[in-house]
């Protein structure tokens, strides 16, 4: 009996440690790192930068408690992961221009950001950008305050639909419906052995793991979105910021000084 209690306590502590490993501050840092590299490669303007951070935050917050089940081979969790990914990529489709989105899809570490290797899950972007503490741009203006208010839970469709005047991507974008889904699945989670009869979500467990559901956060009106570059005093207005890299030039000396800390992105390898 004592042994059973001991095993239960160990399992409980391990689960708590696993969940604590992705704290809210870690979610923000992971979302910022991914957004920062997307801004660097896709040449996002300031408004796009802030919106992409929100979308990446919602994605990371949604999967953080899900990935342990994915690693255990739960088929329902794997399906849920790709649902989260499709929602994220659909939201990005309304923020990025058509040209930016095509470039985004060509980079697996942006389009399919999570993979499993060595029994652990991680973000692919760290394979390309090896200095985990280097950021090209300042934090988004709402880095510490955004808590999921623009997530799909609060809207019937993407909050970002119709917010931009540039042409958006209209081709196939869903990984769940793509003909290469099986190949992408193997590349992302090929080492995970799917447990038999695990396609149904366990009864009694919360069907929604996104943190925003537990909050009563409401979306701020679009007219109150900041239009100044991150790190500077923000002004309230509806005009879009000028199209430039976020707060700094892409030829910024910081980027040059740290250029040798990252490997060449896939698009550079292909000569694009």
Task: Provide a short characterization of the protein structure.
The protein is mostly helical and 272 residues long. It has helices at residues 2-20, 24-42, 46-63, 67-71, 75-95, 98-106, 108-111, 125-128, 181-189, 253-257, 266-269; strands at residues 114-117, 120-123. Mean pLDDT is 74; it is low at 1-21, 211-245 and 247-272.
Model regions low in confidence, pLDDT < 50 over at least 5 residues: 1-21, 211-245, 247-272
Q: How many beta-strand runs?
A: 2
Average pLDDT over all residues? 74
Label the overall shape: globular
Structural class: mainly alpha
Rounded radius of gyration (Å): 20 Å
Oligomer: single chain
DSSP helix fraction? 40-55%
Q: Any idea how many domains?
A: 1
Order of helices and strands: HHHHHHHEEHHHH
Helix segment count? Answer: 11
Please, could you describe this protein's structure?
The protein has 272 residues and is an all-alpha fold. It has one domain (22-269). 43% of the residues lie in helices and 3% in strands. The protein contains 11 helices and 2 strands. The protein has helices spanning 2-20, 24-42, 46-63, 67-71, 75-95, 98-106, 108-111, 125-128, 181-189, 253-257, 266-269; strands at 114-117, 120-123. The protein has a two-stranded antiparallel ribbon. The longest helix has 21 residues, at 75-95. The N and C termini lie far apart (64 Å).
């Amino acid at each position: 009996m004592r042994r059973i209690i001991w095993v239960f306590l160990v399992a409980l502590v391990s689960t708590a440690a696993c969940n604590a490993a992705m704290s809210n501050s870690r979610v923000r840092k992971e979302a910022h790192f991914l957004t920062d590299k997307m801004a660097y490669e896709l040449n996002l303007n300031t408004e796009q930068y802030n919106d992409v951070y929100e979308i990446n935050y919602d994605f990371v917050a949604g999967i953080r408690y899900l990935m342990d089940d994915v690693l255990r081979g739960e088929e329902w969790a794997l399906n849920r992961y790709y649902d989260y990914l499709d929602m994220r990529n659909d939201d990005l489709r309304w923020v990025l221009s058509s040209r930016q989105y095509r470039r985004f899809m060509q980079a697996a570490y942006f389009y399919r950001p999570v993979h499993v290797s060595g029994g652990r899950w991680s973000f692919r972007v760290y394979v390309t950008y090896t200095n985990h503490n280097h950021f090209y741009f300042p934090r988004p203006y709402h880095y510490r305050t955004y808590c999921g208010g623009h997530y799909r839970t609060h809207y019937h469709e993407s909050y970002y639909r119709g917010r931009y005047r540039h042409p958006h991507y209209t081709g196939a974008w869903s990984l769940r419906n793509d003909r290469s889904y099986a190949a992408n699945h193997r590349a992302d989670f090929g080492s995970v052995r799917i447990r038999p009869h695990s396609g149904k979500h366990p009864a009694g467990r919360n069907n929604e793991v996104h943190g925003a559901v537990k909050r009563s956060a409401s979306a701020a009106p679009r007219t109150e979105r900041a239009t100044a570059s991150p790190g500077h005093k923000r002004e309230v207005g509806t005009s879009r910021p000028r199209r430039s890299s976020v707060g700094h030039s892409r030829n910024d000396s910081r980027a040059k000084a740290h250029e040798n800390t990252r490997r060449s992105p896939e698009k550079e390898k292909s000569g694009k």
